[in-house]
Task: inverse folding
């Protein structure tokens, strides 16, 4: 395997599958099957999941809600998704732990770096919930932060598009995908990989990001096998 320890970032929206809202059980079990393939190969797996399928703080604020209140609601949404994913992973036979940045003792461990690392060493999949625990941040930032903290080799950002393009492929038919691109080039060309806070944190800490299509079966395993899938953002 090319990577010993990975941080998989899944957006909340990905969990909707074909639905308009919420969680699609089929998508959850499909993701569990994909994750099992790399777990079986001994890859140590940390996961950060978004909450956009349930609630986004910015959306709440645009409807007149207090932004900070909305952001905490968004963080709780990530915990709900984390619990759903945890259930699906355990159903597929993988040991897991959910650690949250906000304390919710009955259902999750508090985030403790050393403990998380120990779980990973023992082959448990660690899901980090509640983002960074702070309003005004995103789960992409939480993914990079935790990825750095627990020493992951790479951030694997599973999305609906299969990489980074010269332009938005859903709007421009001439858009071409990059196999690899540097952090500096992403910035110089104004491309969108992650929000600026997450992106800069990753760049400063030399943590590469691979953007790939999580809905294409086998992609996750291929990446861990060192095959070129999606777009790799490197230093
Ligand atoms: N959020 C937050 N702080 C964090 C992570 C998330 O306040 O550290 C809130 C924020 O309101 C965000 C919501 O949780 O809109 C859901 O996360 P995000 O939008 O990143 O999820 P995704 O787009 O990946 O589904």
Result:
């Amino acid at each position: 395997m090319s990577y010993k320890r990975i941080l998989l970032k899944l957006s909340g929206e990905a969990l909707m599958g074909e639905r308009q809202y919420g969680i699609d059980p089929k998508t959850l079990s499909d993701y569990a099957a994909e994750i099992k393939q790399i777990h079986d190969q001994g890859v140590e797996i940390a996961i950060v999941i978004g909450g956009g399928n349930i609630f986004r703080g910015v959306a709440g604020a645009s409807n007149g809600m207090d932004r900070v209140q909305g952001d905490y609601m968004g963080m709780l949404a990530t915990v709900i998704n984390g619990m759903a994913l945890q259930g699906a992973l355990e159903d597929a036979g993988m040991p897991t732990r959910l650690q949250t940045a906000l304390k919710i003792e009955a259902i999750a461990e508090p985030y403790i770096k050393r403990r998380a690392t120990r779980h990973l060493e023992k082959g448990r999949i660690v899901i980090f919930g509640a983002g960074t625990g702070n309003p005004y941040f995103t789960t992409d930032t939480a993914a990079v932060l935790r990825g750095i903290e627990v020493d992951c080799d790479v951030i694997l950002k599973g999305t609906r598009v299969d990489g980074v393009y010269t332009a938005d492929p859903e709007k421009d038919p001439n858009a071409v995908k990059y196999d690899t691109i540097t952090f500096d080039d992403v910035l110089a060309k104004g491309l969108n990989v992650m929000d600026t806070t997450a992106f800069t944190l990753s760049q400063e800490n030399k943590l590469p990001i691979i953007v790939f299509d999580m809905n294409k079966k086998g992609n996750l395993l291929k990446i861990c096998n060192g095959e070129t899938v999606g777009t790799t953002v490197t230093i």
Observations:
- Strands lie at 5-10, 44-49, 96-100, 109-110, 125-129, 154-159, 180-182, 209-213, 231-234.
- The mean pLDDT is 96.
- The domain at 5-9+12-234 is CATH 3.40.1160.10 (Carbamate kinase).
- Residues 67-91 form the longest helix (25 residues).
